[in-house]
Specification:
9 helices; 18% strand; 371 residues; alpha+beta; 45% helix; 10 strands
């Protein structure tokens, strides 16, 4: 039975990896290149002159800017050579196919090759790309794209540094100039070793619960404890997935749910699955050890390791303080890896007990009766 369960686990893991690889390319094609963490903090400080109904903010840990226009008039974002780049108005969102920024801003690296028709001096050719009143885009003026930090950062890496103040021009109604103002700062990263040390100590402690004999009273309590931890770890995974989508600009319950299903599906399913497995273990159902091990492995892989970059980055892709993001990821790793280890140890002990036959009793030799 144990072998059959392990075989099923392998099939589930293989299917998950295959589906992840199959969906990775379409996601990247739609610009889903938000960083898992960064040391550069992008902040929008204002819009001059201010306009009621016109809002700009940084999203995806500063990787994109989001402009929302509810003024009832079209607003244009100006490209790098002074040409019209984007237009947002009552009739939707348009991009100028003649603007080099249309192609350079497709990725955060800005390395897209320019087609022959990209000419900032040419008459704009507008292509409708979306409904609604909001547009998001990478903008090199608000990003730091060099591989090495600035000289001031290299000289004093333990201090915050202003990299630059940036400005992005707009046109209201096609004629009146506006400007988005913001700042780009370098923030010292945290001590990743401390976070990894805490996580490793925690997961070893959780994994040690698997050393208690499963059939004993302490072993039963350990299973219940693992179940409770899985519920907590799964909830942390769901919370982090929601936080990433809120940071990416999702609004309202419907908007967050749609963003989760299209952008954080595996983390969402992993978190919910861990919570279900935790409830299953709390009820001490059959094969609960297998459920704990499988849920722990998925939680560690799809929600923990996938977001571990926040341990070494100052700015996290979440709407709350980066420290809380690191706490959530640490909890996910501790519960995930620890639950996997504990469940595997319990499965191994059960298999050993069922496969080892009992020692037969040796019959005692008959004692001869006295003559």
């Amino acid at each position: 039975m144990i072998r059959a369960l392990l075989a099923r686990a392998g099939l589930v893991a293989a299917a998950a990896v295959t589906a992840t690889l199959a969906t990775a390319a379409p996601a990247a094609a739609h610009g889903a290149d938000a960083p898992d963490g960064t040391d550069y903090r992008t902040v929008v400080t204002g819009l001059t002159p201010a306009r009621d109904g016109l809002e700009v903010r940084a999203v995806e840990a500063g990787a994109r800017l989001e402009l929302t226009n509810r003024t009832g008039r079209p607003v244009e974002v100006i490209g790098y050579s002074g040409e019209p780049y984007l237009r947002v108005g009552p009739d939707g969102v348009y991009e100028n196919t003649r603007s080099p920024a249309t192609y350079l801003n497709r990725t955060i690296a800005g390395d897209t090759a320019l087609p022959p028709e990209a000419d900032p001096a040419a008459e704009p050719s507008w292509r409708r790309v979306a409904d609604g009143s909001s547009v998001r885009w990478h903008d090199q003026r608000a990003l730091y794209r060099e591989s090495a930090p600035p000289a001031a950062v290299r000289a004093a890496p333990d201090r915050e540094h202003r990299v630059r103040d940036w400005t992005i021009p707009l046109r209201d109604g096609g004629s009146e100039p506006l400007e988005i103002h913001g700042t780009l700062d370098w923030v010292p990263p945290p001590d990743a070793y401390t976070w990894w040390a805490v996580s490793i100590v925690g997961l070893l402690a959780v994994g040690a619960l698997g050393l208690l004999p499963a059939a004993s009273v302490p072993g039963g309590r350990a299973l219940a404890g693992l179940g409770g931890l899985l519920v907590v770890g799964g909830a942390a995974g769901v919370a982090y997935a929601v936080g990433r989508e809120l940071d990416a600009g999702a609004e309202g319950l419907g908007g967050v749910l749609l963003a989760l299903l299209t952008g954080q599906l595996w983390m969402l399913l992993t978190g919910l699955g861990a919570m279900a497995a935790g409830a299953y273990a709390l009820a001490r159902r059959p094969a609960a050890d297998f459920a704990v091990a499988l849920a722990g492995a998925c939680l560690a892989l799809f929600a923990g390791v996938a977001n571990a970059a926040v341990f070494s980055r100052a700015v996290a892709p979440a709407p709350w303080a980066a420290t809380w993001a690191r706490v959530l990821v640490a909890v996910i790793l501790i519960v995930g890896v620890g639950g996997l280890a504990a469940g595997a140890l319990r499965l191994h002990a059960t298999r050993t007990q069922t496969s080892t036959p009992g020692t037969p009793k040796t019959p005692r030799a008959a004692t001869p009766s006295p003559a």
